[in-house]
Design brief:
Layout: H1 5-15, H2 17-46, E1 48-50, H3 57-62, E2 67-79, E3 92-95, E4 106-107, E5 113-121, E6 126-133, E7 140-147, E8 152-160, H4 162-179, E9 193-199, E10 218-219, E11 226-230, E12 249-253, E13 258-262, E14 264-265, E15 274-278, H5 280-284, E16 289-292, E17 298-299
Parallel strand pairs: 1-5, 2-8, 7-16, 9-16, 9-17
Antiparallel strand pairs: 2-5, 3-4, 3-6, 6-7, 9-12, 10-14, 11-12, 13-15
Length: 306
């Protein structure tokens, strides 16, 4: 049979219809895969804080040996309510040391989790103070958390329920401020609070074992601030307590601007040190609370169960 080229092609395709269907199915699946992969790349780029001078894909690939790609992820816990597992969705998270990170619009999902991807120079560690904000809530800044070349995916914050804070904690703090011994300049009107937990070695907002506090520990005096005020077993600041309870909570009120490294002491145990930074930009950003939550709080060496 002497058919023109296109005639032969048509005949071939007709005779091989089954094979062509298979090819089309494979091509369609490949197109979906490429589309999903591209969307994933775009999503990661949208949540990436690049701390290097290499801003485009080509230069990043060229200098791959001197950069690290780090994943930071954490859970926003709704503090002050009866449900220990309560979370806060749709809260914005950004890094105080890098205000441009706010433009990334990182937010917690329906399960309270958020993720920030970081591109940094390999071997050059950094420190991030995460800011958590949501309309109607009390803007909160974390302690300075080390950012290394390793992923950190168990971050957490105790984001205080706004009704609990305004109707319970704040009035109580007001009474404490009026009666407490106040350093010069501290004032009687509440301005801010720095809060952390003195805990067991395993203490974490991702761990259901409670209570996770280390009782009987004392903490650092912060110059110019009211406190330390230790939390009682009902998780409220109580001036009558000379040391931590099983809750482990402790607060300092009306802390002046500055950098503070705080730790704890108890015979026979060692404790981590946490660092807070309170600066002029915080007031402009509406930051009122400074909170270090387990597992990035004052973790002790005690491995005992509750």
């Amino acid at each position: 049979m002497n058919l023109p080229f296109f005639g032969k092609l048509v005949l071939y395709l007709t005779l091989n219809e089954a094979q062509m269907k298979k090819i089309l199915i494979v091509l369609a699946a490949l197109a979906v895969f490429i589309s999903v992969a591209a969307a994933s790349v775009r999503c990661e780029e949208a949540t990436t804080l690049n701390l290097t001078k290499y801003k485009d894909a080509k230069s990043l690939k060229t200098h791959e040996e001197i950069i690290s790609r780090v994943k930071l992820s954490g859970k926003i816990c709704r503090f002050g309510v009866y449900d220990y597992h309560a979370i806060v969705p749709n809260a914005q998270v950004w890094v105080a040391e890098y205000p441009e990170s706010k433009k990334l619009d990182i937010r917690s999902d329906a399960a309270g989790w958020w993720t920030l991807n970081v591109i940094k120079y390999k071997g050059k560690d950094d420190g991030f103070s995460f800011v958590y904000e949501k309309e109607g809530w009390i803007t909160t800044k974390s302690n300075v958390i080390a950012v290394t070349d390793q992923d950190n995916t168990d971050l957490a914050i105790q984001f205080i329920d706004p009704d609990v804070f305004r109707n319970g904690m704040k009035p109580l703090i007001g009474l404490i401020m009026m009666s407490a011994k106040r350093p010069a300049g501290a004032g009687v009107k509440f301005r801010n609070a720095m809060v952390t937990t003195v805990g067991k070695s395993w203490a974490s907002m991702h761990d259901d074992r409670l209570p996770h506090g280390e009782p009987g520990a004392t903490v650092t005096i912060v110059p110019g601030a009211v406190g330390p005020l230790y939390f009682n077993e009902k998780v409220m600041p109580d001036p009558a307590y000379p040391a931590t309870s099983v809750d482990g909570g402790v607060a300092w009120l009306n802390v002046p601007k500055g950098e503070y490294s705080v730790t704890a002491a108890k015979e026979g145990l060692t404790f981590a040190t946490v660092k807070f930074v309170i600066d002029a930009a915080d007031a402009a950003n509406g930051i009122v609370l400074y909170i270090a939550s387990p597992p990035d709080a004052i973790q002790g060496s005690n491995t005992a169960e509750p």
